[in-house]
């Protein structure tokens, strides 16, 4: 089974004062929510990994999906406020399941979870 990675930017939606974090970032909160969901319903071969920056700072909160031989997807503008955090995490895990099931990782616009449809920053072809 190929390794699938869901990268979550932990510096997205951060709050710092004098170089000290004063609360968890939106990315850290999303990471925690995703980890909770994957513990409840594991996806074989999927790891959820924190990354300090995915370079999509103007499109925070950002995540990326990648696996060998598959398209890489970068999503941004994910809502991580208290009211929408759970629905965002659920949509991300739905996409993770779809991505995992497709040999080349291509997910059609029609089948993409509604919350993610307009939030694709990049779809990069596999090597």
Would you give the CATH topology?
A: Glutaredoxin
Secondary structural class? alpha+beta
Q: Span between N and C termini? A: 18 Å
Average predicted local confidence, pLDDT: 91
Shape: globular
Count of DSSP-assigned helices: 2
The structural domain count equals: 1
Q: H/E element string?
A: EEEHEEEHE
Largest sheet: 5 strands, mixed
Specify the helix fraction band: 25-40%
Total DSSP E strands: 7
Strand content: 25-35%
Q: Reading side by side through the largest sheet, how are the strands ordered?
A: 4-1-5-6-7
Corresponding CATH superfamily: Glutaredoxin
Task: Catalogue the unreliable spans.
Answer: none
Structural commentary:
This protein is an alpha+beta fold and 127 residues long. It contains 2 helices and 7 strands, in the order E-E-E-H-E-E-E-H-E. A hairpin with a 2-residue loop joins strand 2 and strand 3. It has one domain: Glutaredoxin (3-Layer(aba) Sandwich), CATH 3.40.30.10. The mean pLDDT is 91.
């Amino acid at each position: 089974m190929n390794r699938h990675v869901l990268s979550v930017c932990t510096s997205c939606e951060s709050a710092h004062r004098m170089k000290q974090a004063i609360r968890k970032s939106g990315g850290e909160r999303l990471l925690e929510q995703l980890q909770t969901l994957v513990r409840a319903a594991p996806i074989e071969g999927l790891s959820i990994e924190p990354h300090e920056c995915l370079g999509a700072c103007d499109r925070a909160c950002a995540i990326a999906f990648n696996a060998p031989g598959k398209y890489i997807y970068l999503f941004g503008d994910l809502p991580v406020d208290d009211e929408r955090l759970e629905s965002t995490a659920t949509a991300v895990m739905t996409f993770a399941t779809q991505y995992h099931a497709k040999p080349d990782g291509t997910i059609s616009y029609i089948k993409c979870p509604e919350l993610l449809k307009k939030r694709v920053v990049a779809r990069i072809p596999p090597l």
